[in-house]
Write a structure and sequence with these properties.
The chain is an all-alpha fold. The chain has 2 domains: 63 residues, no CATH class; 250 residues, MetI-like fold. It is 76% helix and 0% strand. The protein is built from 17 helices and no strands. Helix 7 packs across helix 10 and helix 10 crosses helix 13. The longest helix has 38 residues. The radius of gyration is 26 Å and the shape is globular. Keywords: Cell inner membrane, Cell membrane, Membrane, Transmembrane, Transmembrane helix, Transport.
């Protein structure tokens, strides 16, 4: 009787090392990207015609005070030493003191970022809630009046400046009709009643049980969120339509139709499921753009968020705040790209098959 030899499994450690190398490459890519962004902001800050010493102590300070601050900032060190000290400072999440507020930049960002995050998230929900169905229906009824309407509105939202839409919206819905709240996040009469818990004032006002205050907060955020969401809606609907048209021309859709499956079942049950992964990527990147691109909208609506803080820092030549905001924006894009890559591996079996 033949003896059965034990079966070895050499592929298991091979798969482990492949995934380890993939994670290592991903981590190294993130580190190099953030390091490059930090280097770029450092050298741009040194090239700008702004004297950081004068920005801190003013024009009328004595030469002795100027020299003391020059030494305190480390500007008398070689450039390579300044860069090493700068990277070590960033590694501790220490961006220095903001000239515009005299507070640590990290504290300022923690204070203003929740307002932008709340605004951008609501805008993203509007974009996703209307953009994906609009894109699917536009592809489903290609060249129909609805398709032409969606494409026209998308083009219109891209070509119309957001600050103009904000001003017209305030003029119509706030000044004329009185349907919404004005600039800011909340009316003055409710400002001291709101107890910040999460930093998201819609949630905080709901937790307080004061529904009049919740209505007031919602009335202030709905117009700027809708204007931001309009651009997100246009982008998401256009990309969803493109993904769907590609899927609807595939052979499996033709085969399903030949077998008697209804058109709506083919679209919503099969094609939509196959575009889930690229659509998630589009949604994530659109949300990141909303976080970074709300500058004009926040300025028009006097929204005390990240974009308005960055604008004030740029106008005042506050490089510490500018660098902190720039690095945060870059980190958001890098992390969201990493999340999108992980989603691809989680939901697309073809990527997992390549690792085996």
């Amino acid at each position: 009787m033949a003896q059965t030899l034990p079966v070895s499994h050499p592929a298991a450690p091979s798969l482990f090392w492949r995934r380890s190398r993939t994670l290592l490459r991903g981590g190294l890519s993130i580190f190099c990207t953030l390091l490059g962004l930090a280097a770029l902001t450092f050298f741009i800050g040194r090239l700008l015609p702004i004297d950081p010493v004068v920005a801190i102590i003013g024009d009328n300070a004595s030469q002795e005070a100027y020299d003391r601050m020059f030494h305190q900032l480390g500007l008398d060190q070689p450039l390579w030493q300044q860069f090493i000290d700068y990277i070590a400072q960033l590694a501790r999440l220490d961006f220095g003191i903001a000239l515009t507020t005299s507070q640590p930049v990290s504290s300022d960002i923690l204070r203003v970022f929740p307002a932008t995050l709340e605004l951008a998230t609501l805008a993203a929900l509007i974009g996703v809630g209307f953009g994906i169905p609009a894109g699917v229906l536009s592809a489903m009824y290609r060249n129909s009046p609805f398709d032409h309407l969606v494409r026209f509105l998308g083009l219109l939202s891209y070509s119309t400046p957001h600050f103009w839409l904000g001003l017209m919206g305030l003029l119509l819905f706030y000044a004329t009709l009185g349907w919404i709240g004005g600039p800011g996040r909340i009316d003055f009469i409710y400002e001291f009643d709101l107890q910040p818990v999460t930093g998201f004032w819609l949630i905080d006002s709901a937790l307080s049980g004061n529904w009049a205050m919740f209505k007031n907060v919602f009335g202030h955020i709905i117009l700027p969120a809708s204007i931001l969401g309009l651009s997100s809606l246009a982008y998401i609907s256009r990309m969803t339509r493109s993904f769907m048209l590609e899927q609807l021309s595939q052979e499996y859709i033709i085969t399903a139709r030949v077998k008697g499956l209804s058109w709506s079942r083919c679209v919503w049950g099969h094609a939509l499921r196959n575009i889930a992964v690229p659509t998630l990527t589009v949604v994530a990147l659109s949300w990141a753009w909303l976080l970074e691109g709300a500058v004009l909208t926040e300025t028009v609506f006097a929204w005390p968020g990240f974009g308005r803080y960055l604008t004030n820092a740029l106008l005042a030549g506050d490089m510490n705040a500018v660098v902190g905001c720039t690095l945060l924006t870059g980190a958001i894009f890098v992390l969201l790209n990493l999340v999108c890559d992980l989603l691809y591996r989680l939901f697309d079996p073809r990527t997992r098959q390549e690792e085996k």
